[in-house]
Amino acid sequence: SEMTKTVEISGEGGPLGIHVVPYFSSLSGRMLGLFIRGIEENSRSRRDGLFHENECIVKINHVDLTDKTFAQAQDIFRQAMKFQSVILEVLPPYNREQYEKSAIAPLCFPDNEEGVPKTKIPPPVHPKPALKTINLSGASSLEAGMQATLQQAKSPNLPHLGRKLSSPSLSPLMGFGNKKNAKKIKIDLKKGPEGLGFTVVTRDSSVHGPGPIFVKNILPKGAAIKDGRLQSGDRILEVNGWDITGRTQEELVAMLRSTKQGETVCLIVARQEEGFLPREL
């Protein structure tokens, strides 16, 4: 609370006019809240001086957004705006580094005698299985905000969060990624003016959390087709050293879009050999 400021607003004053993206810790990769990447010129927020660019909303009506998915955080915000009074904890840019360090501290101390870490990440809530495809072709309007919030994955020494065993819900893909049928391939893509040049697809499972994420299409322009190694059907395992098992498609896309033009993205993908490809999801 010493690092944040409290902003109290009315839920009845109309749209706030802010654009938010996920706020990931640059130190641990944890989702910590919502990053304000833009404020509309004639909006209520600009007029009343409620928020500023590059601030982060970390609590909404005393609900901590740490480890929530982007969809959950947005839903909490929408529900809160139905009330007359909404209390937000807002993190100024100059306190961000200190706040991220404090968010790592609970990882280091056991919360019981057996020494089980405190990180209990709630499973993402998805209303129903849905096919989602996101285009990563060119420069996106999200990039400006993502560059400020998603500078993690720079160091190979960072911890890999979110590793877990394959879920039973993935029965159509059983065997995908095992040593007999699949091989791991490391692919470095340098982001140019046409972007990374591929789309991804997944199928969310409401029971077991996010499913695996695959390359859907290689676009006619971009880094992927120039490099020539990435293929449709490749399962994405790691991005810049970060294990994406259990990550949502939105989180993966945010990591990829945070890459600036001229920077290189390191992908580890699993490719099924012997002509096997996962069925259409």
UniProtKB/TrEMBL annotation:
Q: Which organism is it from?
A: Gavia stellata (Red-throated diver)
The Gene Ontology CC terms held by the record are: adherens junction; apical junction complex; apical plasma membrane; cell cortex
Output the lineage of the source organism: Eukaryota, Metazoa, Chordata, Craniata, Vertebrata
- UniProt xrefs under Pfam families: PDZ
Molecular function (GO) terms listed? Answer: phosphatidylinositol binding
Q: Which residues form the PDZ domain?
A: 4-80, 186-259
InterPro entries in UniProt: PAR3 (IPR052213), PDZ (IPR001478), PDZ_sf (IPR036034)
Q: What protein name does the entry list?
A: Partitioning defective 3 B
Matches recorded under Gene3D superfamilies: 2.30.42.10
Spell out the SMART domains in the cross-references. Answer: PDZ
Q: Name one GO biological process term.
A: establishment of centrosome localization
Q: Which domain of life is it from?
A: Eukaryota
